[in-house]
Amino acid sequence: MKIAVCSTQSYDRQFLTEANREFAHELTFFDAHLNEETWRMVAGFPAVCVFVNDTLNTAVLTNLAEQGTRLIALRCAGFNNVDVQAASDLGLKVVRVPAYSPHSVAEHSVALMMALNRKIPRAYNRVRDGNFALEGLLGFELRGKTVGIIGTGRIGAAVAGILHGFGCRLIAYDPQPNAECLSLGVEYVSLQQLYAASDIITLHSPLNKQSLHLINAAAVAQMKRGVMLINTSRGGVIDTPAVIAGLKSCKIGYLGLDVYEQEGDLFFQDLSNQVIQDDMFERLLTFPNVLITGHQGFFTQEALTSIAQTTLQNISLFEKTGECQNQVTMELLR
Ligand code: NAI
C-alpha cells in the first residue's frame, strides 16, 4: 500500500524501513507535521501514517478523505490529536499501536522520579565544574513512601511493578481497577484520598474529557506540601499555570515532565539556535526542582521496533480485510 509517513525523524525512517522488509509497502517519508497548512503534501495517499504532534482535525480529515485517503495509521498509543467522530463520519478508518513495551514509558517515569529526588542533573553539572559540595543535593528513600498512580492501565501497572520492588506503598485512582495492580497490593482510592496521602503522584491516564486539566489549582491545593508530580502521559492532563503557582508556593516540591500541553510547537525538533517563544515553558525551566524531557518515554529500541512492526501490520490487515483489531472506535472515547 502507498503510505505517506508524516513527522519523520531519522529513527522513524530506520525502524519503519527495517520492519517494512516483511511487509513491502511503498513508504514515502515527509519531515513536516501534518496540519491544515501541510495536508496537501500527502493528498492522494490511501494510507497516512502520523505521530502525536500531527493534527487531524475535521478540516484536515475532510481534505484527506476527499483526496482518496482511507486509512489513518497512528504510530503511537494516544489518539487525542485525531477527531475520531469526524473520521468515522467521513468513513476513514483510524488504527493505532495500543501497546508497545509499556515498560519503556514506565522506566522513564521512574528515571524522572530518581533523577529529581537525588538531583542527578545538578550533581552532574557540579562535578564537571569541580564542585563536590553536597549542599542542596539531599534526597529521600523511596522505600516506605506513598506513591499515587492515576491511571493503572498498561503503563501505570508497569510503574506499580517497579515501585513495588522499591518498597513503596502504592495507592491508585482509575475508574477500572487493574487485577495485576490489585495482586501487587495496590489500594484503589478516590482522587481526594490519593492527593491527600501521596508523597509522589504519577500520571498515566490518557487525555480525555475527564482527565483534561485534572491537575488544576483545586487538585494541587489538596496535595501534600512538597509532593513530587510526574507526568509522562499527555501534557493536557496538567493545567500548567496551576502547577507553576504550586511550584512558586513550594506546595509542589518536584516536577518531572515528559509531556507538555503546547509541546507541538517545541518537541521532536532542534530549536537550540532559536529564541523559544513559549513563556510558560521557559518559566518551568527556571525552577531548580523541575526536570523536563521532550517526550522520550517511548524512545527505546524495543518500543521503536514494536511500533514499526505493529503500524505496518495494522496497515497490511486493513489492506487485506478492511478491518483491524487495533482500530480506534467511538467506543474507546467513552
Ligand atoms: P491504557 O489504555 O493501557 O491505560 C489507561 C488507563 O487509564 C486505563 O486503565 C483507564 O481506565 C485509565 N483512565 C482513563 N481515564 C482516566 C481518568 N480520567 N482518570 C484516571 N484513569 C483513567 O494506556 P497506557 O498504554 O497505559 O498509556 C497511558 C497513556 O500514556 C497513553 O494514553 C498516552 O497518553 C501516554 N503515553 C505516553 C508515552 C510517552 O512517550 N511519554 C508513550 C505511550 C503512551
Your description of this structure?
37% of the residues lie in helices and 15% in strands. With 334 residues, the protein is of the alpha/beta class. The chain has two domains: 133 residues, 3-Layer(aba) Sandwich (Rossmann fold), CATH 3.40.50; 191 residues, NAD(P)-binding Rossmann-like Domain (Rossmann fold, 3-Layer(aba) Sandwich). It has a seven-stranded parallel β-sheet, with helices on both faces. Helix 1 packs across helix 12 and helix 4 crosses helix 6. The protein is globular and about 60 Å long. The mean pLDDT is 97. The structure holds 1,4-dihydronicotinamide adenine dinucleotide. The site of 1,4-dihydronicotinamide adenine dinucleotide has 31 residues, from helix 4 and helix 6.
